[in-house]
Amino acid sequence: MSEISNTESVARVLRNAWVIDGNIQHTAFLLRRGETYISVNRPAIPSYDSDVKGFVTSHPDFYADQRHDKYIRAMLNVGEIRAMRIDYAGITLNVNVEVEPRDIFTKSHAGIFTRHQNKNIKNGDTLYIKSLDTDVSADEILLEVRSNLVDISALESCNL
Predict the structure, then answer these.
(1) How far apart, in whole angstroms, are the C-alpha atoms of residue 98 and residue 6?
(2) Which of 34, 44, 70, 80 has the fewest CB atoms within 10 Å, i.e. the most exposed one?
(3) Reported pTM
(4) Which of 72, 77, 51, 81 is nearest to 157 (CA)?
(5) How many Cβ atoms are within 10 Å of 31's Cβ, its own excluded?
(6) What letters, b where the CB count within 10 A reaches 16 and e where it falls short, cover 36-45?
(7) Which among 86, 83, 82 has a CA at the least distance from the CA of 145?
(8) Highest mean pLDDT: which range of 31-35, 43-47, 63-67, 100-104
(9) Are 141 and 114 spatial neighbours (Cβ–Cβ below 8 Å)?
(10) Collapsing DSSP states into helix, strand and coil, what is residue 83?
(11) pLDDT tens for residues 4-56?
(12) Is 15 left (phi over 0), alpha (psi -120 to 50) or beta?
């Protein structure tokens, strides 16, 4: 059982380039090469505000205004993330999307992992899909996950 409740929400702090005309772009949930999870933070953790402030103040492209006192986040319900179903070629795949604490650096940090056969997947991986008897690019699966994350996100502007 995971430590994060389905009723909890997590926040993805967004770069300005990830929001165009008030819409979150898929790139907001893109895994960089070699990464196995999307970084998020847990607003329910007491250190959330200071954790996010420390991050944003050291990364100027995350400021949402000229005064540098605001940032933008995508809020996602953990239960909705876990309920995500990934379809490919008309078949629901055995792919799980999970949210887990990653509080090594900051107490509020967590990660959204995409797994196939209990293995974290990343860009460039090839997955054998038994029900299709074929290999599928993990990139296609991760694109579907990103699309679903955008669909369930709520955009918010926040003060630092």
Answers:
(1) 10
(2) 34
(3) 0.94
(4) 72
(5) 20
(6) ebbbbbbbeb
(7) 86
(8) 43-47
(9) yes
(10) coil
(11) 999 999 999 999 999 999 999 999 999 988 899 999 999 999 999 999 999 99
(12) beta
